[in-house]
Each structure stands twice: as C-alpha cells, then as structure tokens.
C-alpha cells in the first residue's frame, strides 16, 4: 500500500509536515481497513488507535480531537449503549470491550465502531458531558 498524502498515518519522526488527528486517522483506516488491521478484530483497532494517540502525545502533536476522543469516547459509548441497547448496562473500562458486549461478531463490532465514531465526532464537549451525565443518572431511577 502506498500513501501519497503528505500527512503521516501515525506520529513519530518523519519527513511529513502535517499532523493527523484521530478523527482523520479513523476515516483513513475505515477506507482501507485491511491495510491497517488485516485480521479484522475490534481489539486490534483499539490498539492501533491507542498507538496513534500515544505517538501524537509523545511528539506533542495531540490536538482537540485527540483529547476529546481520549477523554470522552469510552464514557460516551457506555452512555450510548445505556440509551440505545440496555439501560442497565454496566460500564466496562476499555471501549472495545463495550462494543464486543453488544455485538455478535468482530465484523459487526467494527461496523458499529465506525458508525459510532461518525456520531461521536459531531458532538461538542458540552453535549458529550450532558449525555454522559444523563446516563449516570439512570442508576438513580
């Protein structure tokens, strides 16, 4: 696979001039998943993204979208599951475990992940905090 873009696909040293946030990285991975995760396992996507985010942080190239994903995605995903699948769903630490818990296969989990990323990145931080708070309050009912 040959990448012709001048943007890098992960952090680290290199001759590329621009950094790539996690939103754009996920978009590229979605377009050519076999080039990144040939085995098609949701946990491999987790580690791929974790590596991208960590590399951006180490190289002081993280940005607003990276921080938003790091801070809110797992908790928002849990809130999404509580609001759309199971109101009593208990929080699970890693986001890929949550997706595995509500899907029947890795291919279904990967498809759901990409669809939920589209939804997640459309939300601002204030809206994310509100959704998470409302899901937390379901325990009080």
Structure description:
- The chain is an all-alpha fold.
- The protein has one domain.
- The protein contains six helices and no strands.
- The longest helix has 21 residues.
- The N terminus is likely disordered.
Brief overview:
The protein is an all-alpha fold and 141 residues long. The chain is 60% helix and 0% strand.
Q: Portion of residues in helices?
A: 55-70%
Structural class per helix/strand content? mainly alpha
Largest sheet: none
Number of separate strands: 0
Number of helices: 6
Q: How many structural units, i.e. domains?
A: 1
Gyration radius (Cα, Å) is 16 Å
* N→C terminal distance: 52 Å
Describe the global form. globular
Strand proportion, as a percent range, falls in under 5%
H/E series, N to C?
A: HHHHHH
Average of pLDDT: 86
Uncertain stretches of 5 or more adjacent residues: 1-17
What are the defining features of this structure?
disordered N terminus; about 140 residues; mainly alpha
Would you spell out the secondary-structure blueprint of this structure?
Elements: H1 22-31, H2 42-58, H3 64-84, H4 95-101, H5 106-121, H6 125-137
Helix pairs in contact: 2-4, 3-6
